[in-house]
TrEMBL record:
Keywords: Carbohydrate metabolism, Cellulose degradation, Glycoprotein, Glycosidase, Hydrolase, Polysaccharide degradation, Secreted, Signal. Gene3D superfamilies: Glycoside hydrolase family 3 C-terminal domain, Glycoside hydrolase, family 3, N-terminal domain, Immunoglobulins. The keyword Chaperone does not apply. PANTHER family: BETA-GLUCOSIDASE, BETA-GLUCOSIDASE M-RELATED. Its EC number is 3.2.1.21. It comes from Podospora comata. Coiled coil: none annotated. This is beta-glucosidase. It catalyses: Hydrolysis of terminal, non-reducing beta-D-glucosyl residues with release of beta-D-glucose.
């Protein structure tokens, strides 16, 4: 039995000292202004900006003001789906919903709209977006906050999100860095250390670091380090990941902030590259950091760099000029009189609605079940059709604050707060109503929300449709003359606990019960993660299935527009739906303390780069619904593939460019151009996501996935119309990480290009040679 941490020393390569900010590229002016600012600060003032303090706001994190230098302080607030814990804000589609939309332009607009609400509320740093977890652990409790189980898709969407948020002057804090893939044992507790994510160098670069690289390239002003250990070194004290990968290799110019309570050392975190401790300095920084500076244990230059990175981000976003007072719209107690700061912007209503629509994925639709056409009688069943019984803020740590109004709050609290009296991760569904987001610090605060039942009721009124419903019974009475029966279930997931499984008996039995008596049963899941469907998917009376994910406040309105054909579904799965849980292999469930590692739980990423569809392809496993799959009310055809190398670009083995934000600058050179045509062969206009997958040649020593997503374009195609799509493949897109050279290597050989509507529906194929 291993009793001491010393056993693991050296498992994570030490990288010192922590690189200082250089002010390269677009950061030059902000860097120079920040350097002048920091030069005027006293030691105590600099120490004060390395950790949070209490405030008269509900900002989860707050940097104190320095009135002498006219610095007003900074408010840090949750999260990546919208402002949490205050009133007069919107509930935006969650990360998984954005991923299912595969829509770059809509993602950018969401970032702008969401960022604008944070700004109006006086939030300087938005604690999001999320690209860690990356979806490795299929039952992970926080997968819904991220975009996809694919690094390329996540990378593109996180880049657009960062641009949108920071385009309105709010700092994006991209999180959780890095390999934060499970909630089980995420923190040390009762003598057991946090779980260690043990990852080889190539897998780290090609899967987990990839989307963070896109966020850094987009200019993210902040990165949040994670709770768990990486190769047995805590995330916020890991010099390899923070000093080596982030600040050296990727040229990151912003600051690293700890997740709340993720700091477990003082000098070690300072030297390893962490720049800000939240929610406070606790037992490690504050006066202790001052002592370490004065006695020379930590050089004052490291302190200066910590503060410089924070202040430079403040200047970079223009927050020194006409930014609202920090936390002005974040009242400490919403149940007490407070000033109304309405952050909602009516010009983004269409973004909220369109975002909700496009994240719905239709995976089954037989016998023209959908769209509905003025049905005579609709019957609605299931606990997830209606709103929760309460949407009302109360003082303190309320269900509303934590996004768990539909769920058992005692069980949620057992996972998130460590309450006794319940076992976390035992219930997979939320019985008390539909889901607009998952639970925890990433939850949304609904100022308005339209449930599926609300929207369908309104349409039924317009159509003179008779409507029956039963939200509570697992075996309801069913009128067999119903034109259609709609069954609503959900998949609950939240911070603090991983899911008990990928399906639940109660909902499956409800679906089968209704389908046994209704020959047109439509199933809708509001799912905060992957949901298996084998128990009912083949039933002849289950005519349609929709993964509705987490649409935010426009949920019901968006769903009704799809059900009735006012909108054509265009979402695609950002993950793979298996036939059996075991098909996911070691990635199904979180790892737990066991054997000699009872006190030091280990999660060994032995699958390497073969996650999600890469795993299914490599092991020749047939999924139920493949990555990238989604149906439409029309059909699309593909033709005229053209592949052309750029003769003016270098195809040398390794990049030679200088390091800029995001890595070596020539990694982003477009080396190959691919074109294809998409034709709408159906009777209604629709949007199609054309996807490009690349087969990259490897060496004898490295196993390379059969195909990897390396491009996607979402296009609106009219009836009978043909649209051209263009993909630009960069040097990074064509490369694998070379662990010896410590660079991205452009391999020699034949590259396979495939284009189509999903990862297993790729009618166009071509090749090029390097």
């Amino acid at each position: 039995m291993i009793q001491k941490d010393e056993y693991f020393y050296g498992g994570s390569e030490p990288v010192y000292p922590s690189p200082e900010m250089t002010g390269s590229g677009e950061w030059k002016e902000a860097f120079n202004r920040a350097k002048e600012f920091v030069g005027k600060m006293t030691l105590d003032e600099k120490i004060s900006l390395t950790s949070g303090t209490n405030s008269e706001t509900s900002c989860p994190g707050f940097l104190p003001a320095i009135s002498r230098l006219k610095f007003p302080g900074m408010c840090l607030a949750d999260a990546g789906q919208g402002v949490r814990g205050t009133d007069f804000v919107s509930s935006w589609p969650s990360g998984i919903h954005v991923g299912a939309s595969w829509n770059k332009e809509l993602t950018l607009a969401r970032g702008k709209g969401m960022g604008g609400e944070f700004r109006t509320k006086g939030v300087n740093i938005l604690l999001g977006p999320v690209v860690g977890p990356a979806g490795r652990v299929v039952s992970g409790g926080r997968n819904w906050e991220g975009f996809a189980s694919d690094p390329y898709l996540s990378g593109v969407l996180v880049g657009e999100t960062v641009k949108g948020i920071q385009g309105v002057g709010v700092v994006a804090s991209t999180k959780h860095f890095i390999a934060n893939e499970q909630e089980t044992n995420r923190n040390p507790n009762n003598g057991v250390e946090a779980v260690s994510s043990n990852i080889d160098d190539r897998t780290m670069h090609e899967i987990y670091l990839w989307p963070f690289q896109d966020a850094v390239r987009a200019g993210t002003g902040s990165i949040m380090c994670s709770y768990q250990r990486v190769n047995n070194s805590y995330g916020c004290a890991n010099s390899k990941t923070q000093n080596g990968l982030l600040k050296t290799e990727l040229g990151f110019q912003g600051g690293v902030v700890s997740d709340w309570g993720a700091q477990h050392a003082g000098v070690a975190t300072a030297e390893a590259g962490m720049d800000m401790a939240m929610p406070n300095g606790g037992d490690f920084w504050g006066s202790h950091l001052k002592d370490a500076i004065k006695n020379g244990t930590v050089p004052e230059s490291r302190l200066d760099d910590m503060v410089l990175r924070t202040i430079a981000s403040w200047y970079q976003m223009g927050q020194d000029n006409d930014f609202p007072t920090p936390g002005v719209g974040m009242p400490k107690d919403l149940t007490k009189p407070h000033r109304i700061i309405d952050a909602r912007n009516s010009s983004f209503k269409s973004t909220l609605f369109d975002g909700a629509v496009e994240g719905h994925v239709l995976v089954k639709n037989i016998r023209n079940a959908l769209p509905l056409k003025s049905p005579k009688l609709l019957s609605i069943y299931g606990y997830s059709a209606k709103n929760p019984d309460e949407n009302n803020p109360t003082d303190g740590l309320s269900p509303w604050l934590m996004g768990s109004g539909s769920f058992d709050y005692q069980e949620f609290g057992a996972g998130f707060f460590g309450w006794s009296g319940a076992t976390p991760g035992t219930t997979g569904i939320a019985f008390n109503g539909t889901l607009y987001s998952g639970g925890g610090s990433g939850a949304t605060s609904q100022s308005l929300a339209i449930s599926p039942y609300d929207a369908i009721l309104q349409q039924a009124y317009e159509d003179d449709t008779a409507l029956f419903w039963d939200f509570h019974n697992g075996k309801p009475a069913v009128d067999p003359v119903s034109s259609a029966c709609l069954v609503f279930g959900n998949v609950w997931a939240a911070e603090g606990a991983d899911r008990p499984g990928l399906r639940d008996d109660y909902t499956d039995e409800l679906i089968l019960h209704v389908a046994s008596q209704c020959n047109n049963t439509v199933v809708v899941f509001h799912n905060a993660g992957i949901r298996l469907v084998e128990e009912f998917i083949g039933h002849p009376n289950v005519t349609a299935v929709i993964f509705a994910h987490l649409p935010g406040q426009a949920s019901g309105k968006a769903l009704a527009s799809i059900l009735y054909g006012k909108e054509n579904p265009s979402g695609k799965l950002p993950y793979t739906v298996a036939r059996n849980e075991d098909d996911y292999g070691v990635m199904l469930r979180p790892d737990k303390p066991e054997g000699i590692f009872k006190y030091f739980p280990q999660s060994n990423f032995t699958e390497g780069v073969f996650v999600d569809y890469r795993h299914f392809d490599e092991n020749k496993i047939k999924p139920r619904f493949e990555f990238g799959f989604g149906l439409s009310y029309t059909t699309f055809g593909y033709s005229n593939l053209a592949v052309e190398k750029d003769g003016n670009r270098s195809f040398e083995e390794f990049p030679k460019g200088k390091t800029v934000e995001g890595g070596q600058e020539d990694l982003w050179d477009a080396l190959v151009r691919v074109e294809a045509e998409v034709e709408n062969k159906g009777e209604v206009e629709g949007k199609e996501v054309a996807q490009l997958y690349l087969g990259i040649p490897g060496t004898r020593e490295e196993k390379v996935p059969i195909r990897q997503l390396r491009g996607f374009e979402k296009v609106l195609v009219g009836v009978g119309e043909t649209k051209k799509v263009v993909f630009e493949l960069t040097r990074r897109d064509l490369s694998v990480w070379d662990v010896r050279a410590q660079k991205w290597r452009l391999g020699k050989g034949e590259y396979n290009v495939e284009v189509g509507g999903s990862s297993r529906n790729l009618p166009l194929s071509g090749k090029f040679t390097v």
